[in-house]
Amino acid sequence: MPDTTVPDALATIIGAKHIEVREGLRATSLAEMERLAKAAEPPRDFQGALCTTVAQGRTGLIAEMKRRSPSGGEIRPGFDPAQLARIYEAAGATCLSVLTDEKWFGGHPDDLKAARAACALPALRKDFLVHPWQVFESRAMGADAVLLIMAALSDEQAVELEEIARSLDMAVLAEVHDEREMERALGLQTRLIGVNNRNLKTLTTDLATSETLVPRIPADRIPVAESGIRTAADVHRMAKAGAFCILVGEHLLRQPDLGAATTALLAA
Ligand SMILES: O=C(O)c1ccccc1NCC(=O)[C@H](O)[C@H](O)COP(=O)(O)O
Q1: Which amino acids are annotated catalytic?
Q2: Which residues neighbour 120 within 8 Å (Cβ) at sequence distance 6 or greater?
Q3: Pathway, per UniProt (predicted)?
């Protein structure tokens, strides 16, 4: 029996996202958001950038930016998305991940716009997508890729959101935390399978999650190890499990010298 006395962080966030979408739809109709998405400048090749980096024998780093998080509290005072993007790019990151959720992460669509405009890296919109409107909104704000969290979506919803993202030439990172979610993600067309080492119900992090799941991901997919990666040894550990792409946020963002920290992590 699940412990119903413990609040489920993801369920709380998803509940609020449904309300946000309803409010968003009142301000901008689905048809208008679709029009804005189609009018946006063309997307950058998020998946291609990761494939090229890995083919060159380097670690594909999706470098994340977030002001705060439910698990970490305030992460980076003086947060400047354009400056962070330039530093990440110069230090060898392959892609960006930008939190746009305001309530829990202090983010905003303007963060993604500013970060993307400041560099040539493709950008993932890191948010909690539950409705087609948000996929169109992601493209309209300039995102090159969206995150689909399998724990937050039914199979039908995941397929629908992926179809819309693909129709807009955006990449999809399908995120999983257990074997069942992984099987469901493998039913999608995307090659990018993110294994989140963070349990989004309890917010605890364990790199063993990637060590268990990544070796079970078929060779035609691209595993991305996410969360809790802090050291060159962690990067090596993820690579040993078969994940040559990683998504890292908090550790890097807490370092005063972000560029040096990013370079050091990629030296693994
Ligand atoms: O990070 C949280 O506290 C969190 C809470 C609820 C839902 C999602 C959450 N984080 C999203 C992520 O998984 C991370 O931002 C991402 O994978 C980077 O992790 P890290 O390198 O540990 O910052």
Answers
A1: 64, 66, 126, 175, 196, 226-227
A2: 44, 89
A3: Amino-acid biosynthesis; L-tryptophan biosynthesis; L-tryptophan from chorismate: step 4/5
Residue 2 Cα, ligand 1 centroid: separation in angstroms? 22
Percentage of the chain lying above the pLDDT 70 cut = 97
Inside any domain, residue 3? no
Residue at 25 is within a domain: yes
**Number of structural domains, the chain?**
1
pLDDT value at 216 more than 80 = yes
Quick check: ipTM above 0.90?
yes
217: containing domain: 9-266
> What DSSP string runs through 193-234?
EEEESB-TTT--B-THHHHHHGGGS-TTSEEEEES---SHHH
CATH of the domain at 159: 3.20.20.70
What pLDDT band is residue 7 in, cutting at 50, 70 and 90?
low
